[in-house]
Amino acid sequence: MAIVALWWGSVATGIFAAYQLPPPPVVIDAAVGLWGRGLLQRDLLATIARVAVGFAIGSGAAVGLGILTGLSRRMSRAVEPTLQALRTVPTLAWAPLLLLWLGIDEVPKVTLVAIGAFFPVYVNLVAGIHDVDRKLIEVARVYDLSARAVAIRVVIPASLPSLMTGLRLGLSQSWLFVVVAEFFGASAGLGFRLTDSQQSSRVDLMFVGLISLAILGKVTDMVLHAIEGRTLRWRDTLATQAHP
């Protein structure tokens, strides 16, 4: 509510002109108009589908590779330098290459989202595996557990907090990357709506897209946060005290 009051007040007091910052009623009317024509639903579904598929692919690949890299020094030496170099490549540098390699259909868009989700999940999971308390592993070996059993029953469960953090960061990145993906060659989606409204100088429609992205990002993060709270109830931390 404070943000809405500040938004409305900055227009009412003349800090921003209405064409620069449309007041909330104007943005609501624009959203209703898009919804009535079925355009907002189409944009929402297109963006959500791309994020869902890209996040699933990217996070799944990150979990698989992260476990292998985290548990194997040989794998880490072979893979880590390349991945760390790729991680520094800016988002906009991937987009034209993916369009050139994969065309203008859904594949490059989903791939870009998957790239956005991959690195936060991978980096956090590997760091979590490396930070597992050595005493836990020594206790497991006292009970003659095999290396595979130690990984499954000790290392991976102990690294779950880092994995959940990576998943939340990866999901946030997915929403950022999908907008970039939809800037290039999309005919539907919230990113497309932003570029289309910019070209037609419809700032009210731009705000509809921005607010929709903010709501979707917040809702999906809340879902993951709730899953994190239930999954990590065994931890004795301040965070888990808030999730009895």
CATH architecture: Orthogonal Bundle
Which overall shape is indicated by the principal axes computed on the Cα atoms? elongated
Distance between the termini: 29 Å
Structurally, the number of domains stands at 1
Proportion of residues in helical segments:
over 70%
CATH superfamily: MetI-like
- Counting helices, strands and paired strands, the structural category is mainly alpha
What percentage of amino acids are in beta strands?
under 5%
Largest sheet descriptor: none
Rg for CA atoms: 22 Å
Oligomer: single chain
CATH class, anyone?
Answer: Mainly Alpha
Helix segment tally? 12
Under CATH, the topology can be stated as MetI-like fold
**Count of distinct strands:** 0
